[in-house]
């Protein structure tokens, strides 16, 4: 694949403008582009290894990088949070998350916003910590005490419902 001639336009990554912008080829060594000039800020620099036209010459760039000429840019990338590994039973399908329900550690849940997660642990104040793909989230869940209330409500329901309910045949 022939590279653009000197004076022709080419897309290159400009550090000053930040991103892929149009440049003009100002110098070539053989078929290899040696220098480009940004059409926006007029800065001259060597083409970047990430440029579309550099795809065929990636090997050369890699050798240079191995030689130690490239500077690490880890600072700009946010460090990935360390998330605990939570064991779960893959055979058990995830349950839709609801604050009104109780979830056990190891139970997978689907959340409308955060996606699929695994309950990592339950907190003393009755909440659950769920490990989602990229983050931990503390979610509310039904309190243990509510089962007491539920039972009394259920009892009341059966009480008032007795007159209407069809009688159960025994035996
Ligand atoms: Zn520029």
Overview of the molecule:
There is one protein chain. This protein has a five-stranded mixed beta sheet with strand order 5-6-7-8-9, with no helix packed on it. A four-stranded antiparallel beta sheet has the order 1-2-3-4, with no helix packed on it. Helices cover 15% and strands 29% of the residues. Residues 58-63 have low confidence and may be disordered. Among the domains are: 1-55, SH3 type barrels (Roll); 95-140, no CATH class. The protein has helices at residues 58-66, 146-161; strands at 9-14, 19-29, 32-38, 44-45, 95-96, 108-111, 115-122, 127-131, 136-140. It is an alpha+beta fold. It contains two helices and nine strands; from the N terminus they run ββββαβββββα. It binds zinc ion. Residues 14, 16-17, 21, 38, 40-41, 43 line the site of zinc ion (ZN).
For the termini, the CA-CA separation is 87 Å
SSE succession: EEEEHEEEEEH
Low-confidence stretches: 58-63
List all distinct small molecules, including ions and cofactors, that are bound in this structure. zinc ion
- In total, the number of strands is 9
CATH topology of the domain at 1-55: SH3 type barrels
Helix content: 10-25%
CATH-defined architecture of the domain at 1-55: Roll
Physical arrangement of strands within the biggest beta sheet: 5-6-7-8-9
Mean pLDDT: 77
Proportion in β-strands:
25-35%
Shape: rod-shaped
The biggest sheet, with number of strands, parallel, antiparallel or mixed sense and barrel status, is: 5 strands, mixed
Number of helices: 2
CATH class of the domain at 1-55: Mainly Beta
Query: How much is the radius of gyration in Å?
Result: 32 Å
Structural class: alpha+beta
